[in-house]
Design a protein that fits this description.
The protein is α/β, with parallel strands linked by helices and 539 residues long. The chain has 18 helices and 23 strands. Strands 13-12-14-15-23-22-21-18-19 form a 9-stranded mixed sheet, with helices on both faces. A 7-stranded parallel sheet has the order 5-2-6-1-7-10-11, with helices on both faces. Strands 16-17-20 form a 3-stranded mixed sheet. It binds glutamine (GLN). The site of glutamine has 10 residues, from strand 19.
């Protein structure tokens, strides 16, 4: 039997009209912040219609970066946006995918949970969804749960999520927010509402009438555009919100506040109006001020294999901006496809940059180009920051060119390499499943050397960062590499795994973790801040 949970929580459901990739995550995060500055306890929850259990097995090239949480969950990159805006650590239960949902349903069916019934999308799957969100709302004692429905209305993948939200609105207080795009034809200079009109036909077919409409656009939405949109969408003019490009996305909550969205939302949710916390508002203003006020310009290179899709490195790009803002620096990233650097003539591409980052990645393509970039940085004393794969390759490069171990490699790229500098841990060797089996989530690292870049950055002896990788620095080479001048500045507290390595001659640090995943405005990842500071000094 379906047991109906009773909750005190109200719900805001955010739907994408027209197309994806418009910044729904930023709208959801802003809504949570707008509630938070009024003292309401709110969290985001994301529905993703794909049938993968989680994002762990997806290609960043197609789907954007795989974000990792402290609790080991491999989630959608929107969680990066949530955490950076909301400045709280999220948990994996805030991500509900089609894959998780169907496995739950089928497991229940096998156990006899639906004996005698033919299991159907409506009501069984939709009831599961409703129960799930109510369970989260209740378990986390939320005033408001802000739900982001991945994809666009009209997709088959998310249709059962949307139907469940319609049903939820018959049981609980639910406010619907739609996000649309309003293009401007350059030649005519007119803001076009027709795409939104057409998208609303699909939305209305779902039986949902959105309460608010957020409009993405290059320029501010004009009054007559709002009037037209209001007419066709049945949404009051005051509830149509301009979501045009801002100089910094972190300004969005303030931009929405200016349009009285916060108070209107509170009213719609039948929540009591509360005073906006001045200190919380000031903190947002302060963060934005630092980003926009940064003076000095620094250009750095990111040498990676997924550069064609910027979303694949979303947290890296944000961490560079945030690390720069913390030292009054406007940063520019030069994205370099690593395969190009396999031809050393192309190393000229690095001539105009003040620092090099090699980010995380998997698989063979472009590896030698990354190694060439690292050699270039080391020999020319250009600051280097290696992240995960970037740390492993920093070790390989050092082994090859400083320790003279010819063709040293990671067994990921050459399983038969004579010098296996990076290899699989025994626990990984017998792993048959690919999903959720890497070294994942938050791991402590002990900074062993106080006179190190690592200590200079963190100013602490035990730190915690998030991980997502299968391969590790091979301990058999620790002594030899140290003898040749490599500094092992961080290990797991039990000293079993190498976490951070450094050059001594110039600024160069590699970390096995992904510090970019915890970088937030006003709280940038320490290594990124130190790296940008070092880049500022590059001649
Ligand atoms: N491919 C490497 C590993 O699995 C690095 C992973 C990463 O950069 N996230 O260990």
């Amino acid at each position: 039997m379906f047991i109906k949970i009773i909750v005190q929580t109200k719900f805001v459901v955010v739907l994408g009209a027209l197309m994806s990739g418009m910044g729904k995550g930023a709208v959801v995060s802003s809504i949570v912040q707008i509630l938070d500055i009024r003292g309401y306890k709110a969290l985001p929850l994301k529905f993703d219609g794909y049938l993968n259990y989680d994002c762990g097995t997806m290609n960043p090239y197609r789907h954007g970066e795989v974000f990792v949480l402290d609790d080991k969950s491999e989630v959608d990159m929107d969680f990066g946006t949530y955490e950076r805006f909301i400045k709280k650590d999220m948990t994996g239960d805030l991500s509900l995918t089609g894959g998780k949902l169907f496995s739950k349903l089928i497991e229940k069916e096998r156990k006899g949970g639906y004996l005698g019934k033919d299991v159907q999308i409506i009501p069984h799957l939709t009831d599961e969804i409703i129960n799930y969100v109510k369970g989260i709302a209740k378990g986390k004692k939320l005033d408001v749960l802000v739900i982001e429905v991945g994809g666009t209305v009209g997709d088959i993948e998310n249709s059962y999520f949307i139907e469940a939200m319609r049903q939820l609105s018959l049981q609980e207080k639910v406010i619907f927010v739609a996000l649309t795009y309003v293009p401007t034809m350059a030649a005519v200079g007119e803001q076009k509402t027709k795409p939104t009109q057409i998208a609303f036909r699909s939305i209305m077919n779902t039986g949902i009438n959105p309460d608010f409409l957020f409009c993405r656009s290059e320029n501010e939405i004009l009054d007559n555009t709002i009037e037209k949109l209001s007419l066709f969408t049945n949404i009051k003019k005051d509830y149509i919100i301009d979501d045009s490009d801002q100089q910094s996305i972190y300004y969005l909550p303030l931009h929405f506040e200016k349009q009285n969205f916060g108070n209107n939302l509170i009213n719609k949710l039948n929540l009591e109006e509360k005073k906006v916390s001045k200190s919380k508002l000031d903190s947002i203003k302060n963060d934005v001020g630092k980003i926009l006020g940064a003076k000095e310009n620094v250009k750095i290179a990111v040498v990676g294999k997924y550069v064609e899709l910027k979303d694949a490195y979303a947290s890296i790009a944000e961490s560079v901006i945030l690390g720069g803002a913390a030292c009054n620096t406007k940063t520019e990233i030069k994205w370099i496809e690593s395969e190009k650097l396999e031809n050393i003539k192309n190393l000229d591409l690095l001539k105009d940059v003040k620092g090099v980052i090699v980010p995380g990645g998997f698989g063979n393509r472009g590896i030698e180009g990354m190694i060439n970039a690292i050699t270039y940085a080391r020999e020319n004393k250009i600051p280097y920051l290696g992240i995960c794969l970037g740390m492993q390759l920093m070790a390989v490069e050092f082994a090859r060119n400083v320790c003279k171990l010819k063709n040293a490699n990671s067994t990921e790229f050459n399983p038969n390499a004579k010098y296996k500098i990076v290899h699989l841990m025994t626990s990984q060797k017998n792993q048959r499943y690919k999903g959720a089996t890497m070294r994942l989530g938050a791991w402590d690292c002990k900074i062993t050397e106080n006179n190190s870049i690592a200590y200079g950055a963190y100013r602490k002896n035990v730190i915690s960062e998030r991980h997502r990788h299968r391969y590790e620095f091979n301990n058999n080479y620790r002594k030899l590499m140290e003898k040749n001048g490599l500094l092992i500045s961080g290990t797991t507290p039990d000293n079993m795994l190498v976490e951070m390595i450094e050059w001594k001659e110039s600024f160069g640090i590699g970390t096995q973790a992904h510090p970019e995943l915890k970088s937030k405005p006003g709280m940038p990842a320490p290594l990124f801040k130190s790296f940008i500071n070092a880049c500022k000094k590059t001649k």
